[in-house]
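Sanity check. The docking grid for adenosine-5'-diphosphate depends on where the pocket ends up, so I'm generating a full predicted complex first rather than guessing from homology. Inputs follow.
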Amino acid sequence: MIIVMLGAPGAGKGTQAEMIAAKYQIPHISTGDIFRYNIKNNTDLGKEAKKYMDEGKLVPDELTVRLLLDRVAKDDCRNGYVLDGFPRTIPQAEVLTSELEKNGAKVDYAIDIEVPDENIIRRMSGRRACVNCGATYHIVYAAPKVEGICDKCGSKLVLRDDDKPETVKKRLDVYHEQTQPLIDYYKKAGVLKSVDGTKDLHDVFADIVTILED
Ligand code: ADP
Ligand code: ADP
Ligand code: ZN
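Predicted complex below; grid placement will be based on this.
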């Protein structure tokens, strides 16, 4: 089962992808997490990606596609995977489609999590990310057991640099311009499913499970 999560920054792609991955025992692949891991470890890829991420822009397709194709070629992806934050442009989606075709595979579900822009701005200011393992929380909607501390690994939680309101606005513009067209792309491919992302996160997950088990 190959699943693509669509939706604006902050719509809940990562939150839902994590739950899907746990329930169906498939890897959760987040290009954003891979970039942040590289930034933390100061790799060449990290240095390059950071220039774009800090400004709320997309990392160039060439770099991103190469990284993603390497990841999905790994053994653990044999039974499928859930992509979170990829594809983000039509060219990225086209490469994914043609690479999958070579193996007689395709994206089975593209799940669009719908959340209006007004909600996004509010939501992002409350997002907290673990500096060590990347786990995501929300100060109100998905609070950690101890304030400021990751439940999973005990490290510190921070507001991501690119989650400051100015950068969030820029990222939303980039989303509408470059990523939203993917909704139409996957609709034409016959695999688009939409869910109401303003619901409680457990209700959103229940809706997704209904779609996947239909
Ligand atoms: P969010 O979950 O809030 O949408 P991500 O963690 O997915 O954020 O992405 C953070 C940043 O990483 C993006 O703003 C962008 O700069 C970069 N990035 C992640 N995935 C991609 C991609 N597929 N193509 C280009 N840039 C990407
Ligand atoms: P994305 O990966 O699309 O950028 P996240 O999964 O990181 O989005 O969610 C963004 C923020 O909103 C996080 O702080 C997360 O805990 C919170 N969140 C996720 N889903 C919901 C929801 N249904 N209702 C309220 N807050 C949510
Ligand atoms: Zn952690």
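Relevant for the grid: The mean pLDDT is 96.
Also worth noting: Residues 7, 9-15, 123, 126-127, 136-138, 141-142, 197, 199-201, 204 surround adenosine-5'-diphosphate (ligand 2) (CB under 6 Å).
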